[in-house]
Write a structure and sequence with these properties.
By secondary structure, this protein is of the alpha/beta class. The protein has two domains: 199 residues, Rossmann fold; 168 residues, Rossmann fold, CATH 3.40.50.720. Helices cover 40% and strands 14% of the residues. It is built from 16 helices and 15 strands. Strand 5 and strand 6 form a beta hairpin. The structure holds nicotinamide-adenine-dinucleotide. Nicotinamide-adenine-dinucleotide binds next to helix 4.
């Protein structure tokens, strides 16, 4: 074995991880079947935006000892002692983990596995998947896991766009199968510098999915409250302030468009064989209802209570702030729902690869503007003033995030802009990209 570590799947998780290993001097190979990913890396280009990654890629490729290579051939992974799988694990729509990417790579690797190999599952997986993988190797190759080869789950808990801030500090959970798998897996992750916490495979699996279930549920509560406030004519931001203010047991989060590839599906890995089915589905239904809530709220506030032939600007296509990742973003559901009301949708996102309009083009003459993503660059009074100036007179703003501090989910854009300017002092409108 001439390499230290192979990372199979150069996506949002795998590529930064491969870069981090190579940057610490580990002889690393990154493998992906998608040529656009491997070609980009080989050409010294990041295929997506991750803060700090361009610099690390340039540094790694500039090293005299060339610690990173890339390939599309999964069999090449067997050149490394540690093989880390960072493949996608989507959920089928009927609530069941889809492990087909993992199985496909296992089948490609099976003939090449030798004694001493350590296979690490970094992907998010349903409870029991690590033991399934260990059993698969034993069944098809007759290798004893924990003695001949090693299998562990070392879940990725870093949020996209924070990778290089968190990789050396966030506790690294290691759940190894059998006696020695945990130690073997820890020996490669130790290079990243974060504290290692040893546990069992199923506890590692549960810790990861429940990290995300906790967040998904915590965000569903203010989203549900937002809908209830609309029902009673109450202001959700006032109510949240009343809940949290000087209260030692408070902590209600703010509403928003809660989704993304992880939160939107990781709960299904618990739900697929839940002893109390339904609770997490309800959490999902609340978060998934926010786009419809916004569409209905806008409709009620527009003359004639219709969106038909109204121009609606949707600002933000990414699933969360300050990323170009559009996967599983609720913005697209929002756009589809608006289009089903016969609205004329114009979308803009400064970071999105699929956004073609400028903010000015999207907002000019709009009857309604929805802040679908809370990008940091938008969070100021000047942006709200600019939106109010560009949109049609009487245009309605919908912003569940309270991006501008206007403390209203819905309202006439010009009135909200004037209120914010009065409160914060006038801020000169800046030209926006
Ligand atoms: N994106 C996140 O922020 C995040 C955070 C924590 C955990 N996770 C988990 O990490 C895992 C990966 O997520 P991601 O966002 O990086 O996914 P991704 O889809 O961006 O990356 C997966 C990569 O695997 C490649 N691939 C698929 N089949 C392959 C095969 N047979 N051989 C080689 N390569 C193959 C794909 O081409 C793709 O580039 C998932 O389980 C996800 O739930 C993601």
């Amino acid at each position: 074995m001439d390499l230290d570590v192979a990372v199979v799947g150069l996506g949002r998780v795998g590529l930064p991880l491969a870069l981090a290993f190579a940057d610490r001097g580990l002889r690393t190979i990154g493998i992906d079947v998608d040529a656009s990913r491997t070609d980009a890396v080989a050409a010294g280009r990041m295929p997506f935006f991750e803060p700090g990654a361009d610099e690390v890629l340039a540094r790694v490729q500039g090293r005299a000892d060339a610690t990173l290579e890339v390939s599309r051939d999964v069999a090449q992974a067997a050149r490394a002692k540690h093989v880390v799988l960072t493949l996608g694990t989507p959920s089928f729509s009927h609530i069941e983990i889809d492990v087909s990417q993992i199985r496909s790579v296992l089948d490609d690797l099976l003939p090449h596995l030798r004694e001493g190999h350590c296979l690490v599952l970094r992907s998010t997986i349903a409870p029991g998947t690590t033991e399934f993988v260990a059993g698969y190797l034993e069944l098809h190759r007759g290798l004893v896991v924990g003695r001949d080869v090693f299998v562990a789950h070392v879940p990725e808990r870093i949020a996209a766009s924070r990778f290089f801030d968190e990789i050396s500090t966030l506790p690294c959970i290691v759940g190894g199968v059998g006696e020695r798998s945990g130690e073997e897996a820890a020996s490669v992750f130790a290079a990243l510098g974060a504290p290692i916490v040893q546990t069992t495979p199923v506890e590692a699996e549960l810790a990861k999915i429940w990290t995300n279930i906790l967040r998904y549920t915590l965000f569903a509560l203010p989203n549900r409250l937002m809908m209830e406030c609309e029902q009673y004519g109450a202001n959700v931001f006032e109510v949240i302030d009343l809940i949290n203010r000087d209260y030692p047991r408070g902590g209600m989060k703010l509403p928003g468009m809660t989704a993304g590839t992880c939160l939107r599906k990781d709960f299904t890995f618990s739900e697929e064989r839940s002893p109390a089915p339904g609770m997490l589905l309800a959490v999902s239904r609340v978060n998934e209802s926010v786009p419809l809530f916004l569409v209905d709220g806008l409709k009620r506030r527009l003359p004639g209570e219709t969106l038909r032939a109204r121009k609606v600007a949707v600002l933000g296509l990414a699933f969360k702030s300050d990323t170009d990742d559009e996967r599983d973003s609720l913005s697209f559901k929002l756009i589809r729902l608006l289009e089903r009301e016969l609205a004329l949708v114009a979308a803009h996102d400064p970071l999105s690869p699929s956004s073609t309009l400028t903010l000015e083009e999207a907002v000019s003459g709009a009857d309604a503007v929805v802040l679908a993503t809370n990008h940091s660059d938008w969070q100021d009074a000047a942006t709200l003033e600019r939106i109010a100036a560009l949109a049609a007179p009487g245009a309605v703003l919908a912003d569940p995030w309270d991006c501008f501090g206007q403390r209203a989910v819905f309202g006439p854009a010009s009135e909200l802009a004037a209120d914010v300017a009065d409160r914060d002092g006038h801020v000169a409108a800046q030209p926006l990209a």
